């Protein structure tokens, strides 16, 4: 394969998902060659601990790539072709508050859904706007591939602030992860599954799973299987308990609404109360992920630093997040027109005619040198429309609350959010609490 090599910056490179992303990049290096890789994070200490592992890995597997580690944004964006964006504003510390504070009121605590997602969205919007402005100053044509959460809210905000910038793409790896899990059950290669899907981010449904070799829609077969088999992620052995419970709730949702296959994240909206009751307010996903993924990755990085070699150290691979990021960029860079589940604005109501024009919908679509081409889905049925319109109104009010520093809109947003259940007394309590905790990050008047 003879493909031109590219310059990529990873924004938020201090994430402990980065070493596995590096593994994906080196695995795909023939398909997506790298001239230069910039690892950028405003928190230098987070990069420092991973630097030796990353440097040794790149020297071993991709010595032709120039490597830059930096905490200077002016150095991070000059002349880049791609920005892979995975910043976490407020870090894991704030993720912990997002997950724990709503629980005080018996409301589900989650980093992207409900009040936790609201707080995280309010923290992320302005730094993301700043980043886009900076990137456009230094690299007007770069592709900005955003994985920063809550993608629904961040993506919607960017679509409002930069309405003509069609090189910003908001992506989520959850559908990818689910498709990989379907493929294992159906015993096919995940890349032979051509899905159809509709919804908003972390709020959608699979409607078809075409086998691109035979044309069969495999969804009916999968639905049959899931009637009496627990839905497990493809890598169940490596998953923490909370993720296994999450996948299992897909079975439960389908026992009520068997028509389509729901995204795992819908569990928080349907079963929020019981999830909140079963949660341990002293040990949420933030702690679980720290004790699991963070520890595993940081131990490996520390070992690499101590021995200054990769002896007895495995190459970490990003089976979901990392591979998807590279495949997405590859499809754009080399005009492959591969199908992914992607987000895009419902402009002209072309994708879902009975949803608002400004909704950031998520459907199947192709990625090519011209960017995202979302497949028109058609009208959604009343039940789904009701759910989605409510969710879109919540997302839109959240974005406006942030951009206008508007307390009233924030209160309206949270009152609409289904996990709160429509009671403004609860919404106000949670909002005031989150506002205090997030006072270094966001402000409402
Ligand atoms: C899925 C979602 C992402 C989210 C991640 C959290 O992949 O699509 O949006 O960031 O899960 O995973 P974690 O292991 O950090 O809880
Ligand atoms: Mn996601």
TrEMBL record:
Site annotation Increases basicity of active site Tyr: residues: 111
Residues that, per the record, bind Mn(2+): 172, 202
Binding site for substrate: 95, 149, 285
UniProt cofactor(s): NAD(+)
Subunit structure, as described in the record: Homotetramer.
Family membership: Belongs to the glycosyl hydrolase 4 family.
Record protein name field: 6-phospho-alpha-glucosidase
Organism in which the protein naturally occurs: Wansuia hejianensis
High-level lineage: Bacteria, Bacillati, Bacillota, Clostridia, Lachnospirales
